[in-house]
Amino acid sequence: MNVIELYNRRKEKYTRLEAKLTRQYNYTAALRLFVFLFSAVLIIYFHKIKLYFMEASIILIFLILYGVLINIQNKIRYHKKLCLNIIGINKDSIERAQGNWTDFKDNGEEFKDELHQYSYDLDIFGKGSLFQYINSTVTYTGKQTLRKTLTNADYTPKEIYERQKAVIELSKKTGWRQRFQSEGKINFQDMKNPEELIKWAKETISTDSDKSQLNLIRYTPLLTIFMAVLYFPLHLIPVYILSVFAIFQVFLVYYKKTKRVKYLELINLYKKDILTYMNLLKNIEKAKFHCSYLKDLQSKLYDSNGCSSTNQINALVKLSRLISDRNNLIYIILNILTLWDYQYMFALDKWKKVSGPNINVWLNVIGEMESLCSISILQHDNAHWTMPKFQENKLFIYSKNMGHPLITKNRVCNDLKIGDSEKIILVTGSNMSGKSTLLRTVGVNLVLAYAGSPVCAESFSCSKMDIFTCMRTSDNIEENISSFYAELLKIKKIIKAVNENKKVLFLLDEIFKGTNSYDRHIGAKMLLNKLSKKDAIGFVSTHDLELGDLQNENNQIKNYHFEEYYRNNKIFFDYKLRKGVSTTTNALYLMKLAGIDTL
Fold it and tell me: How many CB atoms lie within 10 A of CB 513?
């Protein structure tokens, strides 16, 4: 069964389940109405015949039964949402597998950074990007973790191998991954940056240091109630004593109320997010993982006493639900009588002392799991891709049938070998022949390799290197920077890195294209000769065929090229990489096709 058939089956399965849940929901709603009307009739009947005990019994039974039905309906509604989310996930998965993924809404546009050493040039973020292709994250932390994984994957080869095992295991857990993602999508539109929540969880209220103040708040309501009992039924104390206690409680309710409300409202603001985090954590805790990487993540959800994150955060969920009801009239009255605002503050403070520091850890586990699930989509949907191997005693890339991961239709693959005696590959060829695509193919596959992902190749081996690119440059009017100077700034970063003895892979597209041919040729020659002597390997594309002579001067520079061919007065490209310098050009022909007289 291919992946499209699998996703279609899952979509149909959950479509049927959602229809079943809809029927159950409607049946329960009808039953609620019947219970209400039938109870109302019985209550009126028993009231008229003055059987007040039966009337009270019916009211009690009605309230219990009605509450049970509401609870059942809420559970059905929640599972309906999960089903609809899973249906949507499978629809997106089908679109991805068919190559129709460039319209996915979340493309990471906000992460685009022209100054990053490679992400802008390699289409890591934005329309038609790697992020848009694989992203299945739903929380803020998940997106940030995936961003970091694709732009700063500072893992050792040993760690990468462990991540590979995790990705392979998750790729086989399609049902679990989709349930995990669907849980997060319940409140997807409302998920917020948890930074303020994390900060709040680490702070404790100042009254902790004053035990007498704590006791005053805790025991004053009890004393007030005791005084009320002494006055109203027993008349053992004068009214002014009760009034003093009552006025004092009202004073406490309004004393520094704004500060207290702000403290409580923050947890109310994150109420839905906290519930989502709890459901995501519950899924991670219940999963049966086998590889050590996933087990280690799972273990972080338990404290030193063995208490799970779900149990801890569930206590916070319950408190947040109670706090969210603060604005109704009953709460206002009870707040005056019992000082509930203070009691909740103390309860939250107690929770924070035990569990507050763990929130950041839990969210990081969620984010890491979301990131790994996103990557595992590639493993699941592309069984013919391979997990890369690493070797650290030399700089190299060896690949067989390597293609661009984002070209999902009509992909052309090439064998590639760089390292050993070939430290720099100079790629020539006519316009649109595939030079830039080759450079991006190398770069994107390395980004995936360093993240623990499979790569688009039959086999792939490499060393761990810092990736630097210089491919897209443009004038910046606001910064008063020309495209040529922008290119120099990028190349300066490469020179700085190799001078610091870093292991570097560089990808230079149309080197020094912003200056005249003489300066371009001299500058490129000097740069490539310098880089060939450093701990670096790289690919350089150029239209300057004369640069091909560098192979005769420097045996670490090798020439490769792409060709075009013509048929029925049309131009075609096979995008196959060949040794040697290009022997053809097509600029004049393309000008002629555009209606420009070249004679």
Answer: 15
Structure tokens at 445: 């596959």
Distance CA 10, CA 146 (A): 26
SS3 readout for 555-592: CCEEEEECCEEEECCEEEECCCCEECCCCCCCHHHHHH
Rounded to whole angstroms, the Cα distance separating 517 from 523 reads: 10
User: What's the whole-model pTM score?
Assistant: 0.88
- Alpha carbon of 192 to those of 184, 278, 295: distances in Å? 12, 15, 28
3-state secondary structure of 42: helix
Average pLDDT, the chain: 87
pLDDT at 333 over 50: yes
Per DSSP, the residues of 487-530 read: HHHHHHHHHHHHHTT--EEEEEESTTTTS-HHHHHHHHHHHHHH
Lowest mean pLDDT, pick from 150-154, 237-241, 276-280, 381-385: 237-241
User: Coil, helix or strand for 424?
Assistant: strand
- What is the tens place of the pLDDT at every residue in 526-552? 999 999 999 999 999 987 888 888 888
Residue among 500, 496, 420 nearest 463 (CA): 420
The one-character DSSP state at 534 is S
Measured from the Cβ of residue 393, the count of other Cβ atoms closer than 10 Å reads 6
Cα(429)–Cα(562) distance, integer angstroms: 5
For 217-248, the pLDDT digits (tens) are 777 787 777 777 777 776 777 877 878 877 88
Give bridge partners of residue 572 from the DSSP assignment.
565
* Alpha carbon distance 585, 14 (integer Å): 55
**Quick one: pLDDT at residue 208?**
46
CB atoms under 10 Å from CB of 217, counted, come to 17
Q: Name the phi and psi angles at 556, rounded to 5.
A: -95, 0
In 339-465, which residue ranges form alpha helices assigned H by DSSP?
340-355, 358-381, 435-451
Angle, vertex CA 494, rays to CA 490 and CA 498, nearest 5: 165
- Write the burial class of residue 270 (CB in 10 Å: 0-12 exposed, 13-18 middle, 19+ buried): buried
